[in-house]
Amino acid sequence: MAKTSPLDVLQAYGKQFQTDFTKFLQLRSKELVHDGRMVIAFQSRSSLDPTNDECSTLWELLTMSLLEMLKEGLVQESDINSFNLPVYFPHGDELRRIIEEDGSFSLEDMDIFEVDWDQHDIESNIRGKKTTKSIRAVTEPLFTSHFGNSIMDMLFKKFGTKLADHLATKKTTHLCVVISLIKK
């Protein structure tokens, strides 16, 4: 999701996350005994706005890379317009509400803390390469299935350059949420 995403898209992603996370909780509750415990950690956001910088910067840099490739004739506009990356970072209040509404678990504890994207004590181009490798490992199968394998090296090279430029000027962090649940 990006700052330019239509409101209905933002709402659809939020609704899909609620559906998926509720199903996850229900299925896990079947696997645990009464008073069984589960700890979950994943990326979160501090703002109620799902398009704030902590959630969208990486994806906007990837989008800029794709748009650059469009100008170079390497990808089709229709392919870009029809591509969606299924990524959603919930706010802590959303998690609390979903857990309470589902009712399978009680929330014992929730900790939200900042995590650096990378090591800040090395050069930005090296930091960019390391972070690019991480993002590529997660997203490449999705990009390949939609755009084909032939553009992957170029896409992530462009992304890595943009990311290194970004990291040279900003200290980058994301939020991690760790929740501890007890089966009712």
Strand arrangement across the biggest beta sheet: 1-3-2
Could you state the oligomeric state of the chains shown?
single chain
Q: Kindly state the percentage of residues in helix.
A: 55-70%
Number of strands: 3
Classify the secondary structure makeup into a structural class: alpha+beta
β-sheet strand percentage: 15-25%
What does this structure look like?
There is one protein chain. The chain is α+β, with helices and mostly antiparallel strands and 184 residues long. It contains six helices and three strands, in the order H-E-H-H-H-E-H-H-E. A three-stranded antiparallel β-sheet has the order 1-3-2, with helices on one face. The longest helix has 25 residues, at 7-31. The radius of gyration is 18 Å and the shape is globular. The protein starts with 6 loop residues before the first helix and ends with a strand. The model has no long low-confidence stretch (mean pLDDT 88).
Gist of the model:
The chain has helices at 7-31, 53-71, 77-81, 92-102, 124-147, 152-169; strands spanning 37-44, 105-116, 173-183. It is of the alpha+beta class.
Keywords:
alpha+beta, 184 residues, single chain, 6 helices, three-stranded antiparallel β-sheet
Q: Topology of this protein?
A:
Layout: H1 7-31, E1 37-44, H2 53-71, H3 77-81, H4 92-102, E2 105-116, H5 124-147, H6 152-169, E3 173-183
